[in-house]
Write a structure and sequence with these properties.
104 residues; mainly beta; 5-stranded antiparallel β-sheet; 3-stranded antiparallel β-sheet; 8 strands; elongated
Length: 104
């Protein structure tokens, strides 16, 4: 069995970091181990997530190029696949810029 978990880290202040972690059992023994950990991002807002086609996929809101730290405006899709070396991040797909209605 393989389990995916989301961990959030906050060292105080306004920032936080999110990680996706995959835990499973190795073939040669029954001990549960960390199979892969990847940074989702800093100050990223997770909208939804799923496992599809062997990939972990998250829809997020993140900082755009000219955004202040307080006010992310970019929707994006992040995905990773698990292989023998851990979680491999695929290219982040920028989807849309948030509208004013989505902020309210």
């Amino acid at each position: 069995m393989i389990v995916a978990a989301i961990l959030m880290e906050s060292a105080g202040g306004s920032g936080n970091r999110g990680y996706v972690v995959i835990v499973g059992r190795r073939k040669h023994d029954s001990e549960s181990v960390n199979l892969g950990t990847a940074l989702i991002g800093e100050r990223v807002q997770l909208q939804n997530g799923r496992i599809a086609d062997g990939k972990i996929v998250f829809e997020v809101i993140q900082q755009g190029v000219n955004d202040a730290a307080c006010c992310p405006s970019q929707k994006a899709r992040q995905s990773w696949k698990l292989d023998e070396n851990g979680l491999i991040e695929e290219e982040i797909q920028m989807t849309v810029i948030l509208s004013l209605a989505e902020y309210c």
